[in-house]
Design brief:
Radius of gyration: 27 Å
Helix content: 25-40%
Distance between the termini: 41 Å
Number of helices: 13
Largest sheet: 7 strands, mixed
Structural class: alpha/beta
Strand order of the largest sheet: 13-12-11-14-15-19-16
Number of strands: 19
Length: about 425
């Protein structure tokens, strides 16, 4: 008797060519066959029911739900997928849903492998991103941290659209290759400049974009791990150094936040947005929310984010509103930085600690004696004894054209404390 479960069979655009006997056997032993029409057509003599997904078929979410239902009914399901199903494919999604039923994957070379093989390029040093069925976000930020990349695209996030965004951002020093129907009879691999690709209209739907930076007299260097961005790089509300966290204080405040890859940051009273922008630049996959009530500062945050290649619908979001009221509904943070409070510091700290994930850190910068006292008392009221640093920075400044003197910046108090690991969020039920 057949065991219920799912086997995901990777296929190439040439259909059954290259499919192993193990793959054929998996299909032969299945009760139900699932896949895109172009794959189902290769098994025209399959005796059981077929479920078409993708273009002209059912939505992915509906297909997954139906597969789970069939397995629960003791059916064995073979799912036909493109390339390696565990590489930006359906495999991982199905694997999570099917447990504890048997689950097997039989991979095939992916389009990325085919493309680099055709080009004769190594790809163990390349980045791979997917905008296939995913929102097009942080594309320019991604480019600025790599020199070789493969991109899985779709009709919305097409190679020409990606190239147009690159042109607008000045990212034009790239060799671009578009592979279509790789591994199939209609395979095509063509090179473009960024400008040419932005205007190209003849690109098939099954495509992959591969790019690497052009050699130049000024070789590309990856960005610094700690950017340490000067105030002059940011638009600010007032003259001189402006309404901005100075870089020496900023980097110490970021260190106090203890941010980790994939986390979430709230930057309350963001001002120019310098702290949260630098946080996104130095922390992989970080999501930052810059909260600001002043309309001019909101505009500055947005301008500065764009200057550093941040997508306002991606890793960096600007929230125009007054804290703590506008904090409701934001994703729970791993770190909260409070640089401005409009007289609401205690209330903001209370909400911040409540929403912080256990182990997350609350950091408050205070300049005036009144704010220093309010911040310290705020931590005590929350049952926390904060760590505190008084940062006094003096920078070298020219004197009489040939001398160097010190020019002092305003002292800043940096308070921080960590939310205890055993603290429950109000919405979390106790574990019994």
């Amino acid at each position: 008797m057949k065991k219920p479960g799912v086997v995901v069979v990777g296929m190439g655009e040439d259909g059954c060519v290259g499919l192993s006997s193990r793959g054929f056997n998996a299909v032969a032993e299945a009760d139900v066959l699932v896949g895109a029409l172009r794959f189902l057509d290769f098994f025209g003599d399959f005796p059981g029911p077929k479920i078409q997904m993708g273009e002209g078929g059912a939505k992915l979410s509906d297909v997954v739900a139906r597969v789970v239902e069939l397995v629960a009914q003791k059916k064995r399901v073979a799912v036909l997928a493109s390339g390696d199903p565990m590489f930006f494919g359906i495999g991982a999604l199905l694997g999570r849903q099917i447990a504890p039923f048997p689950f097997e994957v039989i991979p095939h070379p992916s389009s990325v492998q085919w493309a680099f093989a055709r080009l004769g390029w190594k790809w163990d040093d390349a980045d791979v991103v997917s905008f296939h069925g995913r929102p097009l976000r942080d594309w320019i930020l991604t480019l600025r941290t790599t020199e070789k990349i493969a991109v899985l695209t779709d009709g919305e996030s097409s190679p020409p659209r990606l190239a147009a965004l690159m042109e607008a951002a000045g990212e034009i020093h790239w060799e671009c290759w578009v592979g279509e129907s790789l591994g199939g009879s209609g395979e095509r691999l063509r090179s473009f400049t960024v400008a040419e690709l932005a205007q190209e209209i003849d690109i098939g739907p099954l495509n992959l974009l591969v790019m690497r930076r052009k050699p130049s007299e000024d070789p590309w260097q990856p960005p610094a791990v700690i950017p340490f961005l000067g105030e002059s790089l940011f638009s600010k509300k007032v003259p001189k150094l402006g309404l901005i966290t100075k870089r020496e204080v900023r980097i110490l405040s970021l260190a106090a936040l203890g941010l980790r890859p994939g986390g979430t940051l709230w930057d309350v009273g963001a001002g120019s947005g310098s702290l949260s922008i630098e946080a996104v630049l130095m922390t992989p996959r970080l999501k930052a929310y810059a909260i600001e009530t002043d309309p001019e500062c909101v505009r500055m945050c947005e301008l500065n984010a764009g200057q550093f290649g941040l997508d306002l619908q991606g890793a960096y979001r600007v929230i125009h509103g007054l804290a703590p009221d506008c904090l409701a509904g934001l994703p729970r943070p791993d770190g909260v930085f409070i640089g401005g409070s409009k007289g609401q510091l205690g209330a903001i700290m209370k909400i911040a600690l409540q929403e912080l994930k256990p182990g997350g850190r609350l950091v408050v910068n205070a300049i005036t004696l009144e704010n220093v006292n309010e911040a310290y008392q705020g931590f005590l009221d929350l049952g926390l004894m904060p760590e505190l640093s008084l940062v006094q920075v003096s920078r070298g400044a020219p004197l009489a054209g040939k001398y160097l003197r010190y020019e002092a910046l305003n002292p800043v108090h940096i308070f921080w404390a960590e939310k205890p690991q055993n603290t429950l969020h109000p919405k979390e039920p106790p574990v019994i």
